Amino acid sequence: MSAFPQEDLIKQWTSEQASLKQQLVEGDMEEWQRAPDFKGLERVGGVDLSFIKGDDTNACAQLVVLSFPELELIYEDTQMVTLSAPYIAGFLAFRETPCLLEALQRLQRTQPKLLPQVIFVDGNGLFHYREFGVACHLGVLSGLPCIGVAKNLLQVQGVTRSEEHMSQIGALKKGGDTFPLTAASGRVLGKALRSSDKSTKPIYVSVGHRISLDTAVRLTHACCRYRVPEPIRQADVRSREYLRTQFPSVDTCG
Hints:
34% helix, metal ion binding, hydrolase, Endonuclease V
């Protein structure tokens, strides 16, 4: 793809992103979100894409739905997909969201009673170049509460892997401890969370849609058996296993 078409695409996507952002809802909108023990929450979803190593076009799109608080699998959807949109930094959602949204729509059509009440997305929400990452994109298009959970720090809006940042990580002493991800503007765009006592590497949680940051962090911690919340971990494990089974001679990557 030449520079000019990509520039046109960036303009188009920037405009679409800004339009979708107008529909973003920050804050707790459901009764279960306000309950201390999340009473009323029964189904949590997770989505992920896994790729064949060296192939950035064909991927395994995975949706899982787990019971809450047991975190047992009650539904899964596994599909090989071909991604037609190019990868452009800051616009990952335009590449990945369509197939994830299709998985949710299939579930809505076939078994609507199993539709998740909240979705964990392997990526960022408000913690993004223009405060509208993949978790926001999927949340707005699906209308469902979404939480972005990233394993690695996106160095954006003045948040960097500085000495101060590393010092803050060192101050996270136990599972549930957090510190804010504060943009240069002073706005808190997410939180770093030590998800378990055993894991010293934090995860980065941000609002996707229809949930507050504090609730998103609290629920993420409640869904962590290991470093990564179980809905995302299960989606990742199952998509990788599918690729290993279907393409045993090649490596996979998340």
